[in-house]
Design a protein that fits this description.
It comes from Nonomuraea spiralis. Keywords: FAD, Flavoprotein, Oxidoreductase. InterPro entries: ACX4-like, Acyl-CoA_DH_CS, Acyl-CoA_Oxase/DH_mid-dom, Acyl-CoA_Oxase/DH_mid-dom_sf, AcylCo_DH-like_C, AcylCo_DH/oxidase_C, AcylCoA_DH/ox_N, AcylCoA_DH/ox_N_sf. Its cofactor is FAD. Belongs to the acyl-CoA dehydrogenase family. This protein is of the alpha+beta class. The protein folds into three domains: about 110 residues, Acyl-CoA dehydrogenase/oxidase, N-terminal domain (Butyryl-Coa Dehydrogenase, subunit A, domain 1, Orthogonal Bundle); about 100 residues, Beta Barrel (Butyryl-CoA Dehydrogenase, subunit A, domain 2), CATH 2.40.110; about 150 residues, Butyryl-CoA Dehydrogenase, subunit A, domain 3, CATH 1.20.140. It is built from eleven helices and nine strands. The strands form two sheets. Strands 1, 2, 3, 4, 5, 6 and 7 form a seven-stranded mixed beta sheet that branches. It is globular and about 80 Å long.
Length: about 400
């Protein structure tokens, strides 16, 4: 196995420490041996390979970012490269892992009390309990901060949740769902951990998706769902707290976009070396080399952006607009790269046999989730002008 990805043209991976690279290479081996061979089949069937969860757990990386979990704390750079590596193999499984570790575990780590962190995070780090994150609603996506309709009403030591959530990754099988709801008393958004099997909480799989088909997205219905005060995230008192989690996970999505770009470039490069037309490999044609270099340029530029973002994160000085710019820019460039790769493969590019079709489809979901390009643009625009343009 090559230690470096072919598409890591500037060898950014060598910025990791020797110990961090060892972790990354162990993950790379698992993904290539266990995930890549089944990725297309799971995608076609729109089924999640639950049998692989133990393999992910055995990697020992799910809880690295949280002090309550065993193991050394990783740098932002290692966390980013792990997200890149997972998306390079399969965007669906990268999304599964990101929802569990970033959104669900991140919510508990950021907004939970010390007791709540001790109660939930160790089991989640061992992946004995899988998490989901329920923020988006059927009528609210980009405007969810102001338009969130799910309500929480307190009755003594019990909170009663009513409402609906949509596009909830891992929602059909999650053991713990972090639900964001508006407190009927003070109008503020608060977080609640709803355990699997809680009466009044039902999850229905969303069918007929064209992207991330392996991800088990669900519609969540909450009808008189009773959650104890002990399961309300004690440090989540407003949407600002929710936004802190999204700032971190947006940077992870930018890393995922880079992983998809590198995968698309490598697929196209291998094809260009092997496919012959007019008696020679198409990689010898100027127009094909132009496409390859454009793909590589996008991937390399975006990798440089997210590497610097990770350095700002490690220094504790990165801001919402830093993550927003990376998410908006990298996912836009990703759409270009997967399109060029499909173009290079011509008719074969629409066949799953050559993998690129899955990346083209999945890129559409990565482009949209964790804040659309337009919303992230407005976050950056407000930062650089000092003027808010949100409606």
């Amino acid at each position: 196995m090559s230690e470096l990805l072919t598409g890591d043209f500037y060898e950014f991976e060598h910025l990791l420490s020797a110990d961090e690279r060892e972790i990354l290479l162990r993950v790379r081996t698992f993904l290539r041996e266990k995930v890549v061979p089944v990725a297309n089949d799971c995608w076609v069937r729109a089924e999640f390979p639950l049998e692989l969860v133990k393999g992910y757990a055995d990697l020992g990386i799910a809880g690295l970012a949280h002090p309550e979990c065993p193991g050394p704390r990783p740098s932002g750079l290692l966390s980013g490269f792990l997200a890149l590596e997972m998306a390079h193999a399969d965007a669906s499984m990268a999304t599964f892992f990101g929802v569990h570790t970033g959104l669900a575990m991140g919510s508990i780590a950021e907004c939970g009390s010390a007791e709540q962190r001790r109660r939930w995070l160790p089991a989640m780090s061992r992946m004995e309990k899988i998490g989901a994150f329920a923020l988006t609603e059927p009528t609210g996506g980009s405007d969810v901060a102001a338009g969130l309709r799910t309500t929480a009403r307190r009755e003594g030591d019990i909170w009663v949740l009513d409402g609906a959530k949509r596009w909830i990754g891992n929602g059909t099988f999650a053991d713990l769902i972090v639900v964001w709801a508006r407190d009927a008393a003070d109008g503020q958004v608060k977080g609640f951990v709803v355990e699997k099997g809680t009466p009044g909480c039902t999850a229905t799989k969303i069918e007929n998706k064209m992207a991330l088909r392996t991800v088990q997205n669900a519609d969540i219905t909450l009808t008189g769902c009773r959650v104890p005060e002990a399961d309300r995230l004690q440090k989540a008192g407003s949407f600002r707290d929710t936004a802190r989690i999204l700032r971190r996970t947006r940077s992870g999505v930018a890393w995922q976009a880079v992983g998809i770009m590198i995968a698309a470039y490598e697929i196209a490069l291998d094809y260009a070396k092997e496919r012959e037309q007019f008696g020679r490999p198409i990689g010898s044609f100027q127009l094909v080399q132009d496409l390859l270099v454009r793909m590589l340029g996008n991937a390399t530029a975006c990798c440089g952006m997210v590497v610097r973002l990770a350095q700002l994160q490690d220094a504790g000085v990165y801001r919402d607009e830093n993550s927003a710019l990376a998410k908006a820019y990298c996912t836009t460039q990703m759409r270009q790269v997967v399109g060029w790769a499909r173009e290079l493969l011509a008719g074969n590019g629409i066949l799953l046999d050559y993998d690129i079709a899955r990346f083209v489809a999945d890129a559409e979901a990565i482009y949209s989730y964790e804040g659309t390009r337009e919303i992230n643009t407005l976050i950056v625009g407000r930062a650089v002008t000092g003027l808010g343009a949100f409606v």
